[in-house]
Amino acid sequence: MERVPILKLDDVLIVSIQIDLEDQGVLALQEDLAEAVVESAARGVIIDITAVEIVDSFIGRMLSTIASISRVLDAETIVAGMRPAVAITLVELGLSLGGVRTALNLEKGVALLEDRYDAGVAPVPR
Amino acid sequence: MTVHGDADRLRIEGLLRERGESILKRWTDLAAGAGGGHADRALLDGRLREIFQALSRSLEGGDATDLRGLLADLSRGLAREGFAPSDTALVVFSLKEAVYEAVEADEDFALLRGYVWFSKFVDDLGLFTFETYVTFREKIISGQAEQLLELSTPVVKLWEGILAVPLVGTLDSARTQVVMEKLLQGLVDTGAEHAVIDITGVPAVDTEVAQHLLKTVMAARLMGAECVVSGIRPQIAQTIVALGIQFGDIVTKASLADALAYALRRSGVQVTQGTDRRVVVGMEGA
């Protein structure tokens, strides 16, 4: 089973999904991500789905679930780079990804998280 | 067709061969009077001559492809010149009259029976021109509908990072789909984070249209862009409330100007009124 790599950039975790995820892969990603958030004390998680062309309701729910898990661990989730066709599919499926923030691309996703920090308390330098 | 019928048919064919010129002349006269009266006479003559020759050939050889092609040309030509389909059919039907005159002059019972068969044959041809006319028109109509769909949904850039979709006309599922796809593609192409959907030109908003709008806004939101719905006229606001449509947390503005101001504010652009309102016209250093 292919695993999706989780990259760390300062206190942001970046997950770029570039393969067609099977249900097993999705569950593994959830576990890996939860562990990585705790381990690195990340403040934000960005899931980049630029390369994802096909989604089903399972993946749609996966995004919501990851967001919920991350929120419990005090990290904000941003889904970046969703394609128009994917967005239309999710809307037609009736999934609005509540609790997930979205950004047009990875760059804007990072900027969004930085805005958050600027507005709130700056993270303690390590 | 019976042997008897075949013999009658041969008589008619013979008649058409022998008196072809005079029948054709009579036909063009009648046709010009019947339907093609306003058409270019020389053009009509030429067309009818070709059709008549193809008709004779098809009666002898039995292959009607040529004839049908020419009839389709005639029908399309007359349709383009603005004639009603009945005019075209009348032009074809007048051939019966021209042939009948020739049959009448020749007092032969077998020829008359042949004429009945011939009359049916011409009726079929007339109906064929009618059909051609209708398919031709339908092609035009569907082409126009497609063009309308393309034309009526532009995505325009209002500002750096702000797109607008001015919707004009009634929204149905097909159009909403086009609008949605164009808007979302526009967001990807320009990297805009704000979009204004202006419905000033939408005559009526019912639950279905509202549903379509909501879906579009949701899809844009999933991609990371915020939508503002603007151009809601007083009557439409009343309808929306009366129907109990909930726009939820979607921002709505009365006019496109308000929506633009809101989007600018959200994207961090400050618009200030200049203190110097003088407009300077002229060249630098002049």
Number of strands of chain B: 5
- List low-confidence stretches of chain A: none
Order of helices and strands of chain B: HHHHHHEEHEHEHEH
Strand order of the largest sheet of chain B: 1-2-3-4-5
Summarize the structure in words.
With 126 residues, chain A is α/β, with parallel strands linked by helices. Chain A is built from four helices and five strands. Chain A has helices spanning 23-40, 57-72, 84-92, 106-119, and strands spanning 6-9, 12-16, 44-48, 76-80, 101-103. In chain A, helix 1 (23-40) runs parallel beside helix 2. Chain B is of the alpha/beta class and 286 residues long. Helix content of chain B is 65%, strand content 9%. Chain B has ten helices and five strands, in the order ααααααββαβαβαβα. In chain B, strand 3, helix 8 (207-222) and strand 4 (226-230) form a beta-alpha-beta unit. In chain B, helix 4 (65-80) packs across helix 6 (109-151), helix 5 runs antiparallel to helix 6 and helix 7 packs parallel to helix 8. The longest helix of chain B has 43 residues, at 109-151. Chain B is rod-shaped and about 100 Å long. The N and C termini of chain B lie far apart (96 Å). The relative contact order of chain B is 0.08. The interface between A and B is medium-sized, with 20 and 18 residues.
Compact overview of the structure:
With 126 residues, chain A is of the alpha/beta class. Chain A has helices at residues 23-40, 57-72, 84-92, 106-119, and strands at 6-9, 12-16, 44-48, 76-80, 101-103.
Features:
heterodimer; A: 126 residues; alpha/beta; 5 strands; 17% strand; B: 286 residues; 5-stranded mixed beta sheet; 10 helices
Describe the protein's topology:
The complex is a heterodimer of chains A (126) and B (286).
Chain A (H helix, E strand, L loop, with lengths): L5 E4 L2 E5 L6 H18 L3 E5 L8 H16 L3 E5 L3 H9 L8 E3 L2 H14 L7
Parallel strand pairs in A: 2-3, 3-4, 4-5
Antiparallel strand pairs in A: 1-2
Helix pairs in contact in A: 1-2
Chain B lengths: L2 H16 L1 H15 L6 H21 L3 H16 L4 H21 L3 H43 L4 E4 L2 E7 L4 H18 L3 E8 L5 H16 L3 E5 L3 H10 L7 E2 L3 H11 L20
Parallel strand pairs in B: 2-3, 3-4, 4-5
Antiparallel strand pairs in B: 1-2
Helix pairs in contact in B: 1-6, 2-3, 2-5, 3-4, 4-5, 4-6, 5-6, 7-8
